[in-house]
Amino acid sequence: EVQLVESGGGLVQPGGSLRLSCAASGFTFSSYEMNWVRQAPGKGLEWVSYISSSGSTIYYADSVKGRFTISRDNAKNSLYLQMNSLRAEDTAVYYCARVYSGSYYADYWGQGTLVTVSS
Amino acid sequence: NFMLTQPHSVSESPGKTVTISCTGSSGSIASNYVQWYQQRPGSAPTTVIYEDNQRPSGVPDRFSGSIDSSSNSASLTISGLKTEDEADYYCQSYDSSNSWVFGGGTKLTVL
Question: Which residues does chain A have within 8 Å of residue B33's beta carbon, measured at their own beta carbons?
Fold first, then answer.
């Protein structure tokens, strides 16, 4: 069974940093591209970042470029999102999502981890 | 920037058919695949339609997707509405820089 479990969320002050993790199981993690998608409270879905299966190709949304860094460790079946210079508008539930092989959609999502940026 | 626009909300009665639209801001929506996700309150999204009109296994055939190039829109149609279909629905595609783009979401009420 495919499972994606996010962790690392919490309360952080503006300007602070946080590192999210996504533990993958039930599939060959190293063969799949991955995304981070977030959802502010009461708002819609917003794509954050993409990483290829090898980690060699990375994309970011303009709203996080230069502040967030996506990475992965295929040996540990884990995906990460390092978030620096956090702002109030980064407050959201962050989901990791697996990209369906050869396509452009997410076929599995984690349950999300809440990041709250507030003083 | 490429954007996808959805109606904020739609409502319909059980047993009826409802269609949710997703309009592209520029270019041809038919150029890149469109997906549809269902999100119930407090839960992560799940896919109901991918690659314009494909249903993942386990999604009932009451759900269908289509593209209308003349209006530059994608549509999600749900027939034989059930109360369990009440949820938020998001369309998603991608732009020329491989950035994913989500529509703003549509709240479906089945009353």
Answer: 103-105
Element (H, E) at B87: strand B87-94
Low-confidence residues in chain B, pLDDT < 70? none
Task: Find out whether A101 and A32 touch, Cβ atoms under 8 Å.
Answer: yes
- DSSP label of B26: S
Contact between B47 and A37 using a beta-carbon 8 Å cutoff: no
Which amino acid makes up residue A50?
A: Y
Nearest chain A residue (CA) to B56: A107
pLDDT at residue B39, rounded to an integer? 98
Please name the residue of chain A whose CA is at the shortest distance from the CA of residue B91: A45
CA distance linking residue B77 with residue A51, whole number of Å? 32
CB within 8 Å: B102 and A106: no
Binned average pLDDT, 10 residues per bin, chain A of 119 residues: 97 98 98 97 97 96 97 98 98 97 91 97
